């Protein structure tokens, strides 16, 4: 993963990035009509298509994040005490970014918390 944050938060971030890029491309394409007139319309059309693709990717990312969060494990963070979600066996807390794990062999603090989570 690219950022030191919880996986669900990271997916949301990527969704936001694709939304902003898509909108930015479409705005640039529209600006092309103003700048180049008739020729700009073709460029605007191409930019619109790319903008739409980017927006579709962002929707897919959001949808995927939603699907993943339904299968995420709910647990109380031992570090900050807040309710957080984690994906897979190892993830970071959504609030304090402490690395959490369900795998007892990777845990540094071995207590019975894993069994309940
Ligand atoms: Zn925490």
TrEMBL record:
Positions of transmembrane segments: 12-36, 42-65
Keyword Transmembrane: yes
Record-given protein name: YgzB family protein
Keyword field: Cell membrane, Membrane, Transmembrane, Transmembrane helix
Cited Pfam families: DUF2614
UniProt keyword annotation of Membrane present: yes
